[in-house]
Every structure is written in C-alpha cells, then in structure tokens.
Amino acid sequence: MKAIWFDKFGTPSESLQYGELPKPAAGPGEVLVKVHTSSPNPSDVKKRSGATAPALLDGGYIIPHSDGAGVIEAVGDGVPASRIGERVWLYQAQYGRRFGTAAEYITIESRRAPRLPDEAGFDVGACLGIPVMTAHRCVFADGDVKDKLILVTGGAGRVGYYAIQWASQAGAKVIATASNPDDNTTCWDAGADIVINHRDVNWPETLLSATGGRKVDRVVDVEFGENLQNVLDVINVNGVIATYSSSRNPTPTLPFYRMMFMDITLRTVIVYAMPEDAKTHAISDIEKALTAGALKHRIAQTLPLESCAKAHEMIESGDTRGCLVLNMDTN
Prior knowledge:
GO terms for molecular function: oxidoreductase activity. By secondary structure, this protein is α/β, with parallel strands linked by helices. The protein folds into 2 domains: 160 residues, Quinone Oxidoreductase, Chain A, domain 1 (Alpha-Beta Complex); 142 residues, Rossmann fold, CATH 3.40.50.720. It contains 11 helices and 14 strands. The radius of gyration is 20 Å and the shape is globular. The model has no long low-confidence stretch (mean pLDDT 96).
C-alpha cells in the first residue's frame, strides 16, 4: 500500500517518507479500513518534530495522523461482518500505537471507526476526530449550556470554529475572539453573537462593554497561559475554563488564590484521554448533526497523500485556516 511514514524526528521534508508498506490485516476486535482521506492536526505535527512523545520511535517507524475516513473492507474476530462496506470516520488512530491514517489502509479498533453518514463526504469525515470531538468536550463536559454566556477564544481556529457551532446550536450566547476581518466573518458565520479582537490589549473591557457588564459563564480557550489573566477579568464566579492548548506558554503560573476565591473550575481537554462515555456522547451528537446538515466545515485545501510534508509545513506556518485533507484517491 502507499503510505507516509517517519523513522526520525525533524522537519517535514527531512523526516516524512512516501512509498510502499505492507498492507495490514484486521486482528480481533479490529476493522480493516480502505482510507480515502487523512487529516493532519497540530498534535500530529508536534509528534513528527519530536516536540512531544520523544519515545515514539522506540518501536519502529510511524505512520502519522489520528484522523481520517474511509470504508471498512474486512473485519477481525468479534466484529460483525455487517460492518463490511460501511463508510466510517477514524479518530485516535495514532495514539498509543504506531500506525495512523496517512496510508491507503489501516487496521483499528472497531469503536474508533464510527459510521459516517451518507450526508457527509470523506473530506468532512477526516476533520471530525480532534477538532470536532475536542470542541464538543469543551462545550458540554460541564453540563447544559442553554442560556449560558460562553467565550470562545480563537474562534476561527480548527476547534474554536466548531465550539461556536456546538454552543450556539445548544442555546448559548457566544462571544468569540478573532484578530482580522476574515476571521471575524468566520466567527459570525459559525454562530457567534459577539466578536472581539484578542489583539486589543483592552479586550476584556471591550467584552464587558458589549455584554452590558455581564461576565461569561464558561470559556473555551485555545491559549490558556497567554489568556488566563484576561480570562479571569471576564469570567463569573463559579465559571469553567475548558482549555485544549497552551502552546505559547506551556508552563503557565496560576494565580491560585484568585482562582480559588472565584471557585473557578479548570478543565484540560484532549481527545485521547476523554472518558469513553464522553467519546460516545460526542460521536452520537456528531452523527445527528452530520445527518441533519447542522455543522459547517472548512476544508482549507485538499492535497494528494504524497504532499503530506507540504501539509505539515502549512500547519507549522500558523497561517492555515480550516482543515487540511490528504486524499488517497488522487494518487
């Protein structure tokens, strides 16, 4: 099968290889999926660079990427044969194991290959795992959001874009932050009620002016360490901060007593460590939303599998808005 792999850390061009690898066979509890699309995420890029999981290569070469979509071609023992031919999306594919979705075939636990409704294309299916499931967890982990005031920082980002949609469709009033007119439009289009510029040093004052002094109940945050002080200026007592990244300040200092006296809940979110019931909840809501056409998606660019290095470079640039999709069918 055609595949992308790396056996050393480094830049995309020096580490990612393209060629032929053996086609896998489904083991017990697994499905064999003919992959149509694979989507890299920032976490995949960090793994490849060696910035995270430094022991990753101890077992041999890695086929990258956690997210993708395709069709089940065969099943292992314990998996109903009725799943053969089913369109599926893939998540958590390259977590705790070496072989991800950047290949023409993958074997994976049956439960990590949920059904992809006919209403959604394989390109959309490749974007569901990390972005949509992370957003769902951030929005719903702490209960119903109806009539809540929710702040989504970086609302035009991969996760933020879906967090705005989940929250607004569930009855919340959503404030998003963005930094340019195009991103502002993206946030409005996703369902934000208010959009403010997070590059403005006085954005907390701008937010409170826009809400008439009402503070937010929950925050979905893309840069925890960098945003924390400003977030504390706009969040209510008993508020919740759900954060999934702190790349610019990976070791932030917490103002413990300020947060304690506000009874702030800090929730850190990563798909891999979500409880299984939370994953099941997200998958169920995703299927309903896709079937109803309720979620909007942004595919920044579709590239052939052999252009995987270019896709990683685009993510590292920080200039790409929306998901990047590698398409096996163009090879």
